[in-house]
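Aim 2 progress. For Polymerase nucleotidyl transferase domain-containing protein, the working sequence is reproduced below.
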Amino acid sequence: MDVESNLKLQQDYINKVATIVKQYDSVDSIFLVGSHSKGENTPFSDIDICLLFKTDLRENREDIFKRILELSPTLSHLYLFDSEGLFLFVNGIRLDVTFIKPTDFEKLALNKVKIIQDLNGMVAEKYTQTKDAEEKPSKPKWNESEGDFLDWFFWMFRQIYCYILQAGLKPDKRFDKLNSAQSSIKSVRDKLIDMLVYLNNKKDYINSIDKNISGEFEKTYSSLNPTDMLLATRKLADIYEIIGREYAKRINTSFPDAKLVTTKALFNEFDNLYKEIVVLTS
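Predicted structure tokens for this construct:
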């Protein structure tokens, strides 16, 4: 898939979600935030869609989630706290859908939006009122009790890889993207180590548990050099296959071989997309 096709695919998902949502009278407004609202999306961007419901009951939100899930196969999907639908499709497209109550909408500040539907003009009015307000950072969190644990790694691998590549495309965001990627690399590495210790049945030094695997872990520590970080991410995927397979046996579940193959193929595709962008902009 080339860059043009990838960006078109992103827009196709936006159009399909809008078509689904417009069939429900319970939804007042549909709007985009993030890079798509600014026209700055790249092949590595997430799609952030917000749905403002007419009442706090937010009727039909579960139906909407299920219908979006039917659009195409996923590597990972989550329905978080009754307020967010997160979808990572096998083609690498990531879609985040937020189900907003009117009472919560009143507290929001919108500094940039792209409106798809706004039946009562509420989003346009809110944007006019708050576009110059400073957005307050949200408290960092990761709720590890949500979703399938083994599938969580696919979400993180894509996130890390795209953060690193985005750093090369957005000079002003370079440090922040690479720093975020390093943080995510650490999160993945820590969870893999937790799995290894669990399989060992007791806490011990990693070298004592498995000297060979500790040597592989050492290869996942890198500077902020993007090439080294990409190699570290691929190495983590290899370690995940080793430890994850044993972990799957321990908990009596199947190891997601096909999803791992797909993820590694996406690494190659993302590399090619990045090279194409560099050539086009050089």
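The chain has a mean pLDDT of 92. This observation will guide construct design in the next reporting period.
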